[in-house]
Design a protein that fits this description.
The protein is mainly beta. It contains one helix and 14 strands. It is globular and about 50 Å long.
Length: 142
């Protein structure tokens, strides 16, 4: 839960980013899919294997993302990273006014840096990292 709260706080600081920002030395972007179908929202989190700052990217409705370190720094520092991917199912309201939470198509392991199995090396310059995730197994809790 603490990790999710940290991700949410960093994501909020990225909102409204403006001009005059510095570059961390590398960029990272790509597309997140589940069995080839774009994930329609969420966050891709990059945690440095050694030292350094974490970086995050909001997943757009077409599954694409672009990573930022914080509101003052574009991109991420070159280096090795573990990856976690978070999806927040959409909430709607039924005819009776009850909140209905949508399905999360992503296997739970991807929200944990140590269990996701996703690792990348960001080199100086532009990097493209696409992630095709396994779906959540049928019969598992939401």
């Amino acid at each position: 839960m603490a990790t999710l709260c940290s991700v949410s706080l960093v994501c909020l600081t990225l909102t409204g980013c403006g001009q005059g920002r510095t570059s961390a030395g590398a960029t990272a972007s790509g597309i997140v899919t589940v069995e080839g179908v774009p994930l329609t929202g969420g966050t891709v989190a990059f945690s440095p294997v050694n030292s350094g700052s974490s970086a995050f990217g909001h997943i757009q409705p077409d599954g694409t993302y672009h990573v930022e370190t914080d509101s003052q720094t574009t991109g991420l520092a070159p280096g090795d990273y573990q990856i976690a991917i978070y999806f927040s199912p959409p909430e709607t309201e039924d005819a009776a006014g009850n909140t209905v939470v949508g399905e999360n198509p992503v296997a739970k392991k991807y929200a944990d840096f140590d269990r996701s199995g996703l690792k990348v090396t960001a080199n100086a310059g532009d990097n493209k990292f696409d992630f095709d995730l396994d779906p959540k197994k049928a019969g598992r809790k939401k």
